[in-house]
Amino acid sequence: MPRHRSFPADRFPTARFAAAGLTAVLATGGLAACSTDEAEVVPRTQAGATTAAPADDPVEATVAASTLAFESADVVVLGPAESAEAVAGMAGELGVPGLLGSASELADELERLGAETVLVPAGTGSDTGGEGADGDDSGADGEAGDSGLETLEFDPEDLSVDGSEPQIAEPDAEAAATLLLDPAEAEAPGSVVARASVEAAAGAVAEVPTADPRATSDSVAAAQASDGDGVLALGAAFGDAEVVERRMATARTAPELPGGGQLAFPGRRMIAAYGSPGVPSMGILGEQDLDATVQRVQDLAAEYDDHSDVPALPAMEIITTIASSQPGADGDYSAEVDPETLRPWIDRAAEEGIYVVLDLQPGTTHFLEQAKLYEDLLKEPHVGLALDPEWRLEDGQKHLEQIGSVDAAEVNEVATWLADLTQENNLPQKVFILHQFSGSMIADREDVDASREELAMVLHADGNGTPGMKMGTYDSLRADLPEGIRMAWKNFYDEDDPTFTPEQTMDVEPTPWFVSYQ
Known about the structure:
The protein is α/β, with parallel strands linked by helices. It folds into two domains: 41-253, no CATH class; 271-438 and 450-461 and 486-517, TIM Barrel (Alpha-Beta Barrel), CATH 3.20.20. The chain is built from 13 helices and 21 strands. It has helices spanning 58-69, 84-94, 107-113, 189-200, 217-225, 241-253, 290-302, 339-352, 367-373, 375-378, 408-424, 467-478, 502-506, and strands at 41-43, 50-53, 70-73, 75-79, 98-100, 117-121, 150-154, 177-181, 204-207, 230-234, 269-275, 312-323, 334-336, 355-360, 383-387, 406-407, 430-436, 442-443, 455-461, 486-491, 514-517. The strands form five sheets. The protein has an eight-stranded parallel beta barrel, surrounded by five helices. Strand 4, helix 2 and strand 5 form a beta-alpha-beta unit. The longest helix has 17 residues, at 408-424. The radius of gyration is 30 Å and the shape is elongated. The chain starts with 40 loop residues before the first strand and ends with a strand.
């Protein structure tokens, strides 16, 4: 990630100072011993802690950025929030900290920096509580103060200051500092000035979609480049410092998902073929060999390119344990596919950038017991898990004599195990799908825990029939859905009348994040 010495010129086209020289045009008397001495600005080169601050509090945001990037500074730019653009422009041009608020609100930070001179936008009434440029005991707004700060005004339009040109010494190091911004709050006054301060210290700044460093390849690269830096996450959506630190650790070390980043959604939409290899009756995935299946899912995803607002990623949902009419040797009415039989499919999917979801139809076996059979496959970064409660039986039941069901407690056991597996093996977020077409299939669904950020939980609405029937199922299933669970959709070639087109599928509201074909 590139380091920045000066603030982007396109933000401040009227700026007149050359940042490379870091020359401050200050009024005579505005800097102690200004005729002969250079003012010092010292970036913070020892990495600080990971911190977080709200972007909507200009004082807290700009103090946090100044603390992140600067050890000390003889010169500081200060102003009210409504002058954020001017403060940012001047701070960027001079290579000094910018702060928003009054001198009284910023007193502790000004003292920490060792500030001697404060520049304020003219006409803003900024109260620095210090001496004016003429040496009288008045702030920039003419009010008396006792802070001892020299105060100078600059034109907020062209950043000009009349007078002699004392120098600010060129720092001999870059700040070990990375600022993370939430794009939704990047134009807030606190964010604008915080960016200018960090860039003035030659620190790094990254806008992070969804306020999560795991979100995209760019945000992951920014996190990796920040290793050894102090980090400030600016914006409430980032969460507290503990959350940011945990996510940064994952972003720095975990592999990325197909398509980039380490979060399954919202940066992509998955389009999947459903079925079991070599079993055509189970779905379209088993209607052809591996090579042809790869081509088929790639073609399916491509059909969504003109209709999805995010990239459409090819996927395979592989029925890994198959509901059986016979109890089998273990008596569970479920035929388990040997993990080694699936290994070529998993490996080829990784090569082709295809996501894989392993689907369980467990019969009388606990979902967790079956999931553990495929632990080695689930340790792959591009492999997720799906539970199909339709095929979860109680002792004494047989398939197709009733619709199966699972309770929230069993779902939560699997979710906890899968999330722990993901965390312990330093993996990117995993897709975790719950299939459902009837309310009875997941008992106590309101108690399903979707809080583990290692998982992207998805409710797969499996309704078929006419468009009205399918939408009725979809709408009923998403009602009272626990927070944190996204919606998915299934298109049937034989049972739907007619099968939705990609355009129609993307017109479903809310738009599904995972679409499978059966």
